[in-house]
Specification:
With 364 residues, the protein is of the alpha+beta class. The protein folds into three domains: 63 residues, no CATH class; 137 residues, Nucleotidyltransferase, domain 5, CATH 3.30.420; 72 residues, no CATH class. It is built from ten helices and 13 strands. The radius of gyration is 26 Å and the shape is elongated. The termini are close together.
Length: 364
């Protein structure tokens, strides 16, 4: 089944991205309108204007877009005032978040919205930025000196946008040696070390509790599917259906107890009875479930247009009992993706959608 926004047999191609001079005429005026929407986050005019000039500077052709070069580049920039604005001025962060989410809702809000959770990193040359360390950055594809954050994006049939973020402070930052740097970067004393999944769980709970952006589905990769903390945070959001990638060694029992047939004879004719399998038998992994499925249960779907032609996968779904701490937990859907080559590779997602729901086989 295809989503309602797609049509069977119709090829979907990404629109070309080519800007002409006329496309950006009046852009500065539009940027002023965005700036005006956030005026209530600032109590004084000066930081409000520094905020606008910092936005202009980030859209400038400067190769190094740190605050001092931007202050020298933009009209009215103040080399002393703008850095002080970034380090010392206080603005209402909760109000800023509410205003931004309301703008996203006005432009692309939809009751069928989806929240996408993932982490990413940005390279940093120096050592002074908060949270910077040698760590793996998703966009870099390697271990490097960078900052890492957990992000939530909102997507609907009308568009998509980033809506929330949490900065990851690596474990070395919580050591005694880093205490002066934490103080210099004004890290709140109440914060504690958290990995990406707990940060993502707090982020999802905040979006759900604020209730500004309507969304019914959530997707995340295997880093979060392997975390009980994240799964508990998602399940605490009432009415939210998740689709979370799982490692191949995740165990999920097939529905119902296994009851092998056992011949018996009482006083009369022979008959067959069914008994429960031994309780110490471990449920199969999702990889074992996938590899024992017959070819007839798979449905081929084209998911996108690649540079060398359509990209297609085979999909199927099975109801399984998810295991937690080695024990059966709850019944969920197992969505399996299989490549179409001679030696297929597999991908696994678990969904907490109601078992009565008719899940589409195309989940991307």
């Amino acid at each position: 089944m295809l989503p309602a926004c797609r049509t069977e047999g119709k090829e979907e191609r990404l629109p070309p991205f080519a800007l002409a001079h006329g496309d950006v005429e009046g852009f500065l005026h539009a940027l002023r309108g965005v700036h005006e929407a956030f005026r209530e986050c600032f109590t004084r005019r000066e930081p409000r204007e520094h905020f606008f000039r910092s936005m202009v500077g980030q859209l400038s052709p400067l190769e190094r877009q740190s605050i001092e070069p931007m202050a020298l580049e933009v009209d009215g920039g103040n080399v002393r005032g703008m850095p002080r604005f970034m380090s010392d001025e206080i603005w209402d962060e909760a109000q800023r978040r509410r205003i931004y989410q309301q703008l996203v809702y006005d432009d692309m809000g939809d009751s069928e919205g989806v929240v996408i959770v993932d982490e990413s990193g940005c390279a940093k040359k120096g050592q002074d930025a908060v949270g910077v360390a040698r760590q793996y950055g998703g966009t870099l594809g390697q271990v490097a000196n960078c900052q890492v954050g957990v992000f939530a994006a909102y997507a609907s049939r009308h568009g998509y946008a980033l809506v929330e973020t949490r900065l990851l402070l690596p474990e070395p930052w919580w050591s005694h040696e880093y205490a002066p740097r934490r103080a210099k970067c004004q890290v709140p004393p109440a914060l504690v070390f958290q990995t990406q999944p707990p940060l993502a769980g707090a982020l999802v709970r905040a979006l759900s509790q604020e209730g500004i952006l309507p969304f019914k589905d959530l997707v995340a990769d295997g880093l979060y599917g392997h975390s009980p903390d994240f799964l508990e945070a998602v399940e605490a959001c009432r009415g939210l259906t998740s689709m979370v990638a799982m490692p191949s060694d995740t165990r999920g029992g097939l529905p119902g107890p296994v009851r092998p047939a056992k011949p018996s004879r009482d006083t009369g004719e022979a008959r067959t009875t069914r008994t429960l399998a031994p309780k110490d038998r471990a449920p199969p992994t999702v990889e074992a479930i996938a590899k024992h499925l017959h070819d007839t249960v798979w449905s081929r779907r084209t998911v996108s247009e690649g540079t060398k032609g359509p990209i297609a996968y085979a999909f199927t779904k099975r109801q399984v009992t998810r295991c937690r701490d080695g024990l059966p937990d709850r019944a969920v859907w197992l969505i399996i993706k299989r490549s179409c080559g001679a030696q297929p590779s597999y991908g696994y997602d678990l969904s907490n959608a109601p078992l009565s729901a008719r899940l589409p086989l195309l989940v991307w």
